[in-house]
Amino acid sequence: MFNYENQINPFTSLFRGRAMNRAPTIFLGLMGFVVSSRPMNKETTQIVEKLLASPQKIVIVGHKNPDGDAVGSCLGLSFFLKSLGHNATVIMPNDFPDFLKWMPRCEEIGIYEKEVQKSTEIVNASDIIFTLDFNSLDRVGDFEGVLKAASAKFVMIDHHQQPADYAVATYSDVKMSSTSEMVYHFMDALGEADKLSKEIAINLYTGIMTDTGSFRFSSSSPTTHRVAAKLIEAGAESAIINQKVYDTNSPERMKLLGVALNNLVILPEMHTAYITMTQKELDDHNFKKGDTEGFVNYALSVKGVVFAAIFIENKQESIVKISLRSKGDFSVNDFARNHYSGGGHINAAGGKSSQDLNNTINEFISILPRYKNELTDAL
Ligand SMILES: [Mn+2]
């Protein structure tokens, strides 16, 4: 489909379409842009400014099974807050994948699951808890009780749908590419964009890059690219970051991808493709957490497919884990909420089924005809 929006002059495009709806972008003469004028609104900015007016003890928390955006945004924000004179500690509910273990100073991240008592003490002693890249406290697993019992004030920075209402300052924007992009806007709104260090830049760039599929998804706005440019100028080397994140496949993972592609089923009538993975297939390939990350995108890359799913058997938890992807207007967030007690974004969501793999698939196939019109009209 011809995309008019991509063809127009970038200077005009600032004043139309999504960029205009999201936040007015100011053009400052011929020599330079500001990235945007305050995508974080004035009210939220003022609350945050008050909270940060004197040195605070701050904990920054990402979601369970942290991804590149969770790790990048949390680390980036922590270095920023430290540069303002605060005490900031990142605590993740559980460990993050090996392909992110090179990120600047990621060894400083506390892992709740590994250090329950220490993490609890740090949370209990904190003044402010920033929650990043998730929309509801139940996204942190067993860490939830500790956070709920804390007396600290909460600040949310997140781009998922339907943010819960637990924070004194909620910076939520579902149109944002990533929470890492929002951390840049957060710094900018506080008038502190000049605190952008190389370490912050690398972390935020990694978060934006991983959450946008290397700037391929429609969530990558002109503003996203402007922020990325700032991060590159501050020392984030795109080619090196891409290599570190993506060129890390183990031979077992590549073989497992072969199995996944072999299991691919295409339902042309429904514009749908899905992949199944049994526990045995995972075990036979020495499965490590994160190995199936991105497999679902191969299903989505089939010509004519607008809806893709991967169903991964997890015998230990007696569930089937489900990742959903879509193109265009078909909302996998709605689909995951309606059928798999999950959710996410319009084009990327996840959930689970407590039925066995076969029944899960049979049910999936039986549900699809209800969505036939939406699937046909998605693009
Ligand atoms: Mn994210």
TrEMBL record:
This is Exopolyphosphatase-like enzyme. It comes from Aequorivita sublithincola (strain DSM 14238 / LMG 21431 / ACAM 643 / 9-3). Residues 57-208 form the DDH domain. Transmembrane segments: none annotated. Residues 282-365 form the DHHA1 domain. GO terms for molecular function: nucleic acid binding.
